Amino acid sequence: MYDEEQEYAATHNPKTIQHHKNYVSSRHHDNTNRTLENNGLGVKDQVEYRYLEWNTPIEELYSNSSELPPSVTSVVDPFTWESTRKNIVLVLACWSTFMAAYTAGAYTSGMKQMELEWGIGKVPLLVGVTTYTTGFAIAPMFLAPISEVNGRRNVFLASYLLFTVAMVGCAGTSSYAGMLVSRALLGVGGSTFSTLCGGVIADIYHAESRGFPMACFSTVALFGTGAGPLVSGFIAQHLNWRWIHWTQAITNGLLLLVAVVLLKETRGSVLLIRRMRALNKYLDETEDSSFLDKETGAQRVRWKVRAEEERGSLKDMVRVSLTRPFYLLFTEPVVFFFSLWVAFSWGILYLFLQGVPLVFQASHHFDTAQTGAVFTSMCVGTVLALALNTLVERFAHHFLPAASGPETRLYASCTLGSFLPIGMFWFGWTSFPSQHWILPTCAVGVATIGIYSIYLAVFNYFADTYHKYASSALAAQSFCRNMLAGFFPLVTTAMYDRMTFQGASSFLGGVGAVLSIVPWVLVLYGDKVRRRSKFAKEIMGE
């Protein structure tokens, strides 16, 4: 994939910026300059191609820069947008991510009514969760390179439309097969909001100011998963399962309309190419005005963008997007174990979608609305996790000011990541009917704190360690995470029936405890591990 750092270097490189007089006086042009002299044309038919960048001085673009049309001057570097414009994009990105996560959690609340209507069992209906997460896992590998070539906005608008239409399909379908097809399409549309929103944030915020926006993105991803069953439980209880999907279709349609009006293109390279094409078109239309120095008969100047030349074809980009994540997954121990860790934690998150109804309806005789209300703890846990992660990072900076390297991103997960196994043991051993319902409810919130910490740590660590390969490393963990998330609900009932609530939760807590060692190993030996990594060594050598 063509990543943000490559794009920034290709569109902000100060070495290629020179005053236009230097171009005119120099006899030695680089390989980017082309002339038409070999065709027998005169001096004024010579064409000099220069690289256009965001920091190319405006006076260099045209002899009278004040005459440049809005199609050129209105296209600006997304990093320089005013805060209001950035905030609008951030709100849209977080709203979209919330809806994608909400959709994942809302589905299960209507399953009892679907069982009665269609006469099928619980496990086949849970395949609707699996088809949704499968779309999440696979679609971004195709959509990410398309967004890098054609722009984020086009991909987002197409995804909003597909997401809305597929949700209407879920609400109106009269068959189980129709539900599965609609859920699969829903996953393809929703995958954009789960994966590319992080890219949108990276498009408009520099690394040093990206912390809060990325924290918001991570928070709504988990908050939405809890809000889904929380709200849909009441809808299913007082209306019916179809209204779970109709309310989302209405909201998604509103989001689509807002995005059409307010969502602007954020991909820097795409915008710069648009500016270049508009500028060249204007120079073609005003040929006589495009000479920089009429006394010497200087060449006609046209512009091109380095990023457009350096990236491969869309076919090659898709091929890399499909193959490199798996190459990293099976050759890089860091990517493998981190992907395993975050995939397991995400599986637990989705296990709760089925595990919470099992425990609270069997042990405490909760109805659908009451069961949905239990997921309030997941929402509260997400907010607490955001606060606790921020607090741990500040303590780390205060007490370990000399610490450096990607491993500093793991301090919060070393401590708070252990909340996941703690929460699982707590959930299992307080699920007896004799125990008050508030105890397992709190356990869900505690486990969510651990899941959030793991999720955030993996994103930050991969970005800091793999740099230009970070998108591929993140794609690897995203594939594992979503595939396992779709698998866990299918086996939850069988596992709890055969192992009991206590035994199954303890088993999962034990696995989580073992995987909690991963960040500690990297904090202690991360430098040695990275030096043995082919990709990390390549990055350190640059």
Automatic annotation (TrEMBL):
Q: Does the keyword Endoplasmic reticulum apply?
A: no
Q: Which residues cross the membrane?
A: 88-105, 125-143, 155-178, 184-205, 212-237, 243-263, 326-352, 372-389, 410-431, 437-462, 474-495, 507-525
For this UniProt entry, the molecular function terms from Gene Ontology, in alphabetical order, are: transmembrane transporter activity
Q: Which Gene3D superfamilies match?
A: MFS general substrate transporter like domains
Q: Give the main localization category.
A: membrane
Q: Which PROSITE patterns match?
A: MFS
Cellular location(s): Membrane
Keywords of the record, alphabetical order, are:
Membrane, Transmembrane, Transmembrane helix
| Entries under PANTHER family matching the protein | MAJOR FACILITATOR SUPERFAMILY (PTHR23502), MAJOR FACILITATOR SUPERFAMILY (MFS) PROFILE DOMAIN-CONTAINING PROTEIN-RELATED (PTHR23502:SF134)
Instruction: State what protein this is by name.
Output: Putative MFS multidrug transporter
In which organism is this protein found?
Sphaerosporella brunnea
